[in-house]
Amino acid sequence: MAPRIESAHWPFHGRSPWLLTVAMFGVAGFLSVAAVAAVVAIVIDDPAPAARDECVVATIASGEEAPAERLRALAGADYWVEADHDLLLCSRGGALAVGELGAAASAAGALAVAGFSGVAPERLAFLKVTPDLHAEELGRVLARGGRWVVVELTSGLPPAPLDKVRVGPALFPFEPNRVLARRWSQRQHGVGEALTDPQIAAMLDEIDRDRWFADVSTLAAWNRWTRGSQVLSARDWLVAQFAALDGVSVTTADFWVPPNSYPGAWAYNVIATLPGTVRPDEWYVVGGHYDSTSNDPSVAAPGADDNASGCAGTLELARLFAAHPPDATILFICFSGEEQGLYGSEDYVADLVAAGDLAKVQGAYVLDMIAFTASVQLDCILETESFAQPWLDHFADAAADFTTLGIVMEYGVCCSDHAPFLWQSSPAVLAIEADYPSNPNYHTMNDLPGYLSPLLAEQILRMGGGALLRLAGSTAIFVDGFESAATLRWSFTAP
Q1: Closest listed residue to residue 409, CA positions, set 377, 434, 444
Q2: Distance between terminal CA atoms of the chain?
Q3: Residue 283 pairs with which residues in a beta bridge?
Q4: Which of 192, 352, 419, 451 is the most buried if burial means most Cβ atoms within 10 Å?
């Protein structure tokens, strides 16, 4: 996960219509101190501020669409934002007082209501938080869900919180009537039993969390900082691991990470290809970056969770599919240069575009930080853009059928290797631990394997493996007792 950007490069290029772009400062998505200061100044120093709004946050039940729909249509609520359990409802210009709006929300089915008076709409912003920053340092928090926070920025922010925005999260412009995060519901899934294939479940049992943990430990023993030398040892080890799998061919692709306060460096993606046995021109991508960073990466950057966990997960899924050759082609990619600004994935997608191969990619499943949990409840965020909802649904369905995961769906791309695919309108989803904002070891030299949950990683890999076994198929899967690999068609027509 790459909120700490070492250079002015950010491969955004205006591809997400609502992601804050600050081209004049040479940075987009993640903001420099100067850029954030300028944005905040523009937002909060309006000489003619708008009239204040009255807002409430209604607590809604997980995945219950009917109450949420009633609340979004509430008379007197001029705009709303949904962030998982929190549904922000606001009355422009205080046409309805907080008490009136809250009473109406309660009558419409809100489980609880909290009021916020005198909200300045011109100061509202979306913030994607990390452990580097408490959102309260930037202003009044109105709603939160997943990694998203709706914040009313404080006028005249001091430099310290702005500096934390530079090294941590992303600040986005406020947009009313938007779903930022939504809890996935088993009721939405509905036909889970019909979609569950015991043959796939048996294959998923081959995922070995002990082997995954051993791979994480191997990777974390190297300082995988993109600009260092040990990352090359990790690259070579990954090449050897993928090359040992039946049917898999491995290449590396180099790209340049330019200098800043550190020297420039050549970096390398590791690309393992498992050709499809039936549909070789239909491609699926599984990926996770293998580079790491820390508070002092020139000294040590073990990066066990970020992101040895996702890279080792990519390798483990490659082992699964090498044992059960897919009908469609699957590319397993460990990207580098992610922590400096998605250099590796941006380079890979650019190569696909240049070769005319992007249309072959049916979708990407990106694993980034998949093994930290702060509770016994194992939750995972699936992040994409709204146009890729059908792609996300495959993984949410598989989570219900093959795991015990709780799923939070997030919209608005940020900060990992799924982004370059989505910027090219190619479906992609990021799988990331839901408790990531509370990980105390994030981007530190203390990001070590002992703090990880192999069980959470196993569950996220089962989700991805289950979805991809349905999508990419396997000649080992006999459907309804017949020797047919048309698992995707069967899945959608099962009684």
Answers
A1: 434
A2: 41
A3: 329, 361
A4: 419
The torsion angles phi and psi of 58, rounded to 5 degrees, stand at -95, 130
Contact 429, 364 (CB under 8 A): yes
To the nearest 10°, report the CA torsion of 473, 477, 482, 486.
-10
Per residue in 234-263, pLDDT (tens digit) is: 999 999 999 999 999 999 999 999 998 899
Q: CA 449 to CA 436: how far, in whole Å? A: 15
Rounded CA separation 245/158 (Å): 54
Buried b or exposed e, range 118-128, using 16+ CB within 10 angstroms = ebbbbbbbbbb
Extract the residue ranges of the chain whose pLDDT is less than 50. 4, 7-44, 46-47, 166-168, 191-194, 479-495
173 CB neighbour count, 10 Å cutoff:
13
Rounded distance, CA 316 to CA 336, Å? Answer: 18
Residue 278 corresponds to which amino acid? V
Residues across the chain: 495
State if pTM tops 0.85: yes
